[in-house]
Amino acid sequence: MTPVVAPLRRFFPVLALVLSAATFADVLPTPSAVEATARSLAAIERNGVNLDNLTLDEILRDSREAKLAYALREKLRSAGSAAISPLTVVVLQCKRPKTLKLLLDALADLAPKGVADGVLRRLEDPRTDSTLRRQIPRFIGRLGDASHAALLEELANDKDFLLSREAVFALGVLPNKAGVPALYRILDKGPDVCRGAAAETMGEIDEFPAIEKLIEKLMDPDPYVRTFAQTSLTESWSTSASAKGSPR
After folding, report:
1. Which sequence spans correspond to the domains of the chain?
2. From the centroid of its chain, how far is CA 237?
3. What confidence score (pLDDT) does residue 214 get?
4. Where does residue 177 fall: left (phi above 0), alpha (psi -120 to 50 degrees), or beta otherwise?
């Protein structure tokens, strides 16, 4: 234990745990260091720190613990391929949603196809914890593989509506607009929750047919779909107006 951590443990046990793990993480990518890093992130989450949308700009305005969470995540990423195996083990054991999201983000940035396929196979295992299953669509989107569009469209019809919504959002971030045809189909014929998510996602698609489809959905019988169609159109028009008014 470092001299800095020892006195903290008595008065600030969560922060002490984080700093201890950060010290261990200096020797990544050993399994024990990766596990310690994951425990640190979980401790931060338990302490109520917001781990959503952990970008550098947000971290610079946030708490010391949030900055540590960002540093720990970046340390995992910088560890390279040697961290993949222990990180995969930790991912499959993690039960805290926001911590799991950060770990999966790091794994998606590092993982070769074989490792990614191993995580995806967890979708087919009925023993897989729902916390992990609901995060896998986002992991798929993060991988940036256009060939996963069909899988995500299938997941958009899953009976778990939290998982299905994440699948719709992931379709929207696939490269080369690979998920866009599926979004059109979901918006027309998918479950209502997914249709609303599709309307929300299609506001970010820069093509005229998407605008036409959203205008059509302003008259949709489902209020959830109507609301997100209107929100997406408003944001799209606002973005377009800003782009036209900006100096060249």
Report:
1. 1-111, 148-243
2. 27
3. 92
4. left
Residue 245, token pair as written in the block: 């008014």
Q: Which single residue is written with the structure tokens 């059109």?
A: 184
User: Lowest-confidence range among 21-35, 106-120, 141-155, 205-219?
Assistant: 21-35
What mean pLDDT do residues 43-58 have? 56
Which one, of 106, 34, 111, 35, lies nearest residue 77 by Cα? 106
- What average pLDDT score do residues 167-179 get? 93
Q: CA–CA separation, 224 vs 43, rounded Å?
A: 36
Q: What is the CATH number of domain 148-243?
A: 1.25.10.10
Question: Which amino acid is present at 152?
Answer: L
Is the pLDDT confidence value at 130 over 50?
yes
Q: Pick left, alpha or beta for residue 166 (phi over 0 → left; psi -120 to 50 → alpha; otherwise beta).
A: alpha
Query: Is the Cβ–Cβ distance between 136 and 167 less than 8 Å?
Result: no
Average pLDDT score over residue span 233-246: 67
Residue 245 reports pLDDT greater than 70: no
Query: Quick one: which of 166, 161, 219 has its CA closest to 192?
Result: 161
Report which DSSP code applies to 83.
G
Q: Give 58's pLDDT tier (boundaries 50, 70, 90).
A: low
Listing DSSP states for 157-223 in one string gives: T-S-HHHHHHHHHHHTTSGGGTTHHHHHHHHHHS-HHHHHHHHHHHTT--SHHHHHHHHHGGG-S-H
Residue 65 near residue 18 (C-beta atoms within 8 A): yes
3-state helix, strand, coil in the chain (%, to 5): 75, 0, 25
